[in-house]
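Project outcomes to date are best conveyed with an example. Our students and postdoctoral researchers have been running inverse folding experiments weekly, and each run begins with a structure described purely in tokens. The record below, which covers 165 residues, was selected by the lab manager from last quarter's runs and is presented without edits.
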């Protein structure tokens, strides 16, 4: 290639290289809303067996990962005695379909759960898995199972994002 032809080619390559970061930044995907609220009901196998109602928040930590915190409270049964029960969960979920391309989305996650029953505080490692359904009236319903201080089964209502899960 003659030197005269290389000069415009070099200029074109330089313009593309210096403009690429701006073009790529324009392609950034931002989940809306960033903070996603959730309401949940959980049955925990214990011991003691507990029924809890909770609320939480989660935020995206990348396209596929959500980091969240949940506070819940309810009642626990040990034999025929009833007592108060509360817990705080810190979880990280990995979504297999973060952009909502499929009607149902599967996820799995892990975290830490702190539980107080009968004035006894305990901390557990937490493993969860679930399936999240389609958006309806601004909410998505999930069915979640997990292990952390016993088996747990939960029904979760998460505020639907406009452009993903």
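After processing, the design step wrote out the following sequence:
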């Amino acid at each position: 290639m003659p030197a005269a032809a290389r000069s415009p080619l070099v200029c074109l390559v330089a313009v593309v290289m210096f403009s690429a970061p701006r073009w790529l930044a324009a392609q950034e995907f931002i989940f809306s809303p960033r903070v996603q609220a959730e309401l949940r009901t959980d049955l925990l196998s214990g011991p003691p067996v507990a029924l809890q109602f909770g609320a939480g928040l989660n935020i995206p930590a990348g396209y596929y990962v959500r980091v969240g915190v949940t506070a819940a409270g309810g009642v626990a049964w040990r034999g025929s005695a009833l007592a108060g029960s509360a817990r705080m969960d810190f979880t990280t979920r990995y979504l297999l379909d973060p952009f909502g391309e499929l009607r149902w989305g599967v996820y799995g996650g892990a975290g830490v759960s702190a539980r107080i029953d009968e004035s006894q505080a305990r901390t557990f490692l937490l493993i969860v898995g679930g399936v999240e359904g389609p958006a309806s009236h601004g909410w998505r319903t999930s069915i979640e199972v997990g292990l952390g201080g016993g088996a747990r089964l939960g029904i979760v209502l998460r505020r639907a994002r406009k452009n993903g899960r």
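The first helix runs from residue 3 to 26. The chain has one helix and eight strands. The training component of this project remains on track.
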